[in-house]
Specification:
The protein is mainly alpha-helical. The chain contains 4 helices and no strands. Helix 3 packs antiparallel against helix 4. The N and C termini lie far apart (36 Å).
Length: 100
């Protein structure tokens, strides 16, 4: 019979996952606010189609993660790249940081 420990993450795993989610939410919030501010300042309709500039240094560094958490973080990075928030170079740099 499997123990409760094998079915749920421990306290440390939960704290690490919360920190990653919080960091991702904060980074996303900053990007959205920056994009909205630039659109408001420019007042141009073409600003909606151009992705914001973000450097790999602005992406929060993730805590060392287990297999599931690492996969979640890589999925989030892939979603940011697909949505145009990250360039291919920024995605590669952030992915390399996660994998080291």
């Amino acid at each position: 019979m499997p123990s409760a420990r094998s079915r749920r993450p421990g306290l440390l795993g939960t704290v690490a996952r919360t920190a990653v989610i919080s960091g991702t939410a904060q980074a996303t919030s900053k990007i959205v606010n920056r994009r909205a501010r630039s659109r408001w300042e420019q007042g141009s309709p073409t600003a909606e189609t151009t992705p914001p500039e973000i450097s790999a240094a602005e992406i929060p560094a993730a805590a060392p993660a287990g297999g599931d958490q690492l996969a979640d973080q890589l999925s989030r990075l892939a979603e940011l790249r697909i949505s145009g928030v990250l360039t291919d170079e920024e995605f590669a740099a952030a992915k390399a940081r996660l994998l080291t």
